[in-house]
């Protein structure tokens, strides 16, 4: 049986779960107030992958990511999928939808992100989506210390993937 979920924008009722997801996935997580700010910031979008049935702990938010529109360039951050749901293409679906929204609703054509140099799984995912290395920020991350690989994607709005459903 495949996991059934949908992707939607962050809602106020998601804040506690999104903050917990962030704490589970990152050594220096954003806090509740950071996600709360997204709800009122017209330059930011947080997409949440939401399970159609809660897990044993009652949690439904199983993944998410942030897009910040910085004068027409899309900065992608906080790409997270709960450890119990990894390997099911949730991050791919989230990123494809985030790029589609950024391109079609915000007229963003260039997206950037930073990723830990040792996170080969994430780098592989980003490369499959068309991102290319564009530089390195030495010692960017702490806990543990690591370089950040800057990755860039330029999109042609006429060639964006179209998705009707998620989780199939």
Per-chain topology:
Blueprint: E1 5-9, H1 15-25, H2 32-38, E2 44-51, E3 61-70, E4 73-81, H3 90-106, E5 110-116, H4 120-128, E6 132-141, E7 146-154
Structure description:
The protein has a 7-stranded mixed sheet with strand order 1-2-3-4-5-7-6. The N and C termini lie close together (10 Å). Helices cover 26% and strands 35% of the residues. The protein has 168 residues and is an alpha+beta fold. Residues 162-168 have low confidence and may be disordered. It has a single domain (5-158), classed as Aminopeptidase (3-Layer(aba) Sandwich). The protein is globular.
Question: Quick recap of the structure?
Answer:
The protein is an alpha+beta fold and 168 residues long. It has four helices and seven strands.
Strand order of the largest sheet: 1-2-3-4-5-7-6
- In CATH, the architecture is 3-Layer(aba) Sandwich
- The N- to C-terminal Cα distance equals 10 Å
CATH class descriptor = Alpha Beta
Task: Please name the defining characteristics of this protein.
alpha+beta; Aminopeptidase; 4 helices; 26% helix; globular; disordered C terminus
